[in-house]
Amino acid sequence: MVSIFIVDLGIVSTSVALPLLLVEKYGVSLAAGVTFAIRLLPSILAGPVVGGVLAARDPRQVAVTSTLCSGVFAGLIPVSQALWQVQVLSLGMGIAAMFALPAWLVLRPAVIAEGEERRGNGLLVAAQRVPTLLGPPLVGLFVIAGNLSVVFLMEAVTAALAAVMIFRIPPLPSDTSPVDDARSGQGLHKLLHQYARNTRALLRVTTEDLFMRGATITSFTYSLAVALGRMMLLVLGAESFSQVSGFYGWMLAAMGVGGLCGSLFAGHLRRVRTGTLYIVVMVVEALIWLTLPWLTNFLVALALMAMAGIMESTGYVLYYAEAQLRVPASLTGYYYAALIPVVDACTFVGTALGAFLAGWSTHAAAIILSVVMGVPILATARWYYAPRMTSGDKLSAAGTEKP
Predict the structure, then answer these.
(1) Taking the model in full, what pTM does it have?
(2) Which of 7, 45, 101, 268 is most buried by its number of CB atoms within 10 A?
């Protein structure tokens, strides 16, 4: 929890400070969009190689290396003399993040006891949410002090501290350690093999477990919808709520507060069936996004975004908990290595479409958003009541190919 909190505080602060720095140094807002797009490219194009790396190496080593590299790249941004240099560093941060996130996810069974999956993942999601509340005002203080560059150096420091904390994480239990079945090969052949290997792992998981099939599909549509929604909030702040200074920031802050509450409470809702709760939170959040363009009261919008944050984080807790229980240990790294690039691609598409749709009509954007988020969860509703595999089934499913 401490290492996740520390590293995410640095990442969130950098994500807030980077567009400010770009505008300050280069005077172009388009540069921020291009730079953020570059950060997603490594995961989209080469993310599948991560599965093989996590299978061949200790996930703790992968997490340490990627975290430290990201911190070094961030620390070099303030001394960059040209925009292309910032973009190269941003690309490096994207490559590091491509390895870091799956490594953190694979390590969860090492610190969450059997039977505590929902509560444990709730605490870890809470550790991720707190930085989203602290990061923006922290950056604001540095802006007021006229020393924005310190924010990037802060990520370098937090990355080093997080790396130290990772060494306190115990190794994965022997029965949950990833299995290395990577085939020999080089260059494009090896990359294509990893694409195929991760795709097979994702297909195996989604074929053998109906809950994971539905959760995987809806993770794609949800990511697209939320990215569209954030663009819609920007337009709403400029049009419907132009009288509210910093509307976009207020909305994200409210969502962050709700997300923290939801992640803490989700672990205590053990009497509610997971499938029912998963469906409810997704549908309620879709309805919240649908109502936003019709609102005129800022406080009501603020309250609804806090509620959306509760729904969002509860859904994530349920997803991670069920994935820990249902995905065979030997396939976990491969599954996430296949999942995350598609999620990033959906986020990229949602951001691009969101800017266009919201600029055309916020009402139309809200309707499309709610359909993209709500219809898939309703269409796959019966899958979320599928039983988990037994131990014997799971061991059978965990079998991997021989080189």
Answers:
(1) 0.70
(2) 7
